[in-house]
Design brief:
Layout (H helix, E strand, L loop, with lengths): L4 H15 L8 H11 L5 H13 L7 H39 L4 H29 L3 H15 L7 H18 L1
Amino acid sequence: MRDNIYVTLIVLLAPLSLASIGGATGIYAPLQHQTVDALGWITAREFVDLFAISRLTPGPSSMLGPLIAWKVAGVTGAIVASVALYLPSSLLCYGVAHVWERHRGKPWHRACEAGLTPVAAGLVFAGVVALLRIAGSGPLTWITLVLVAGLLTWRPKTHPFPLLGAGAVVFLLARLSLG
């Protein structure tokens, strides 16, 4: 499998495609592990750089996979990676959406929604931790991350000013952590 990089890209990205439904954040940790640690295609610094580029460019947040493929296998690799990353999850979503709508409101439907919520949160958390570890982040970055996560989950019921004020504090902390 390692002899043909295109096959390796498909075998690596197609299963990650199925784990990325709802957002690519959940695949950053396994993508980093495979491309940096297991296969050695790129360095940890290159992974962080490609991650930053993927977040700055327009389009889906899962552009990190095709960017890595472009770095190691050129334009053809990026095309193969894009198809491997987007086709399986798109087909699965299309099929599941039909079944999901047909059974909306049933007890098993509600149970699935409730059960998948912590799984999605765990995948996102693993991706964030992997990125912070690679970036060599300091304590201020971690504190800022915790504050931002708290802000995103906190919804003031009376007035938006406390949330705006907290956002300003987090912004200032983020600016300090960036230098």
